[in-house]
């Protein structure tokens, strides 16, 4: 006669789940001056807004969001990342018999595999939730970042127009509205 034994197994899963999302766009920078000069004017404006130079790019990192502007091409990439520590614990009971091949070890191994699969599914759900949060944050930040970059482009364009006007002749009159970004120049040639 075979005997039945109860077996209880507990597993813990600890991992860090990560998620990221990004979007790329193109700045509309007019070619008033040669490309390298326009890029430098844009870079100066972005430096005043907290960007740092990294090679041919300017980058700003803030709270899991990275804004990268490629100065030569005007390509902007906004990336948001997030991570979350996940700690899951699960427990399961099972039975095994004297004559079970492998006995207690085989039954324990099988229970641990079932627990591990279940916890991996739960961790995947946590990662999906984090991915949604990251995507929602990116969507929420886009409007503010776009407004800020448009202002930087407008200021760089205004600086280029002033420089170009001074190359053409003498600036007689200039009026600039910072709020709307309008610029009026009267140049005597």
What fraction of residues sit in β-strands?
A: 35-45%
The class by helix and strand makeup works out as alpha+beta
The total of helices stands at 2
Outline the low-pLDDT stretches.
Answer: none
The largest beta-sheet arranges its strands as: 1-5-4-3-2
Helix content: 40-55%
| Number of DSSP strand runs | 7
Q: Between the first and last Cα atoms, what is the distance in angstroms?
A: 111 Å
Biggest sheet statistics: 5 strands, antiparallel
Q: What does the radius of gyration come to?
A: 30 Å
Mean pLDDT: 88
- Element-level helix/strand string: EHEEEEHEE
**Anisotropy-based shape:** rod-shaped
Q: What is the total number of structural domains? A: 1
Please give a structural write-up:
42% of the residues lie in helices and 40% in strands. The protein is of the alpha+beta class and 189 residues long. The protein has one domain. Strands 1-5-4-3-2 form a 5-stranded antiparallel β-sheet, sandwiched between helices. Strands 6-7 form a two-stranded antiparallel sheet. β3 and β4 (65-70) form a beta hairpin. The longest helix has 66 residues, at 103-168.
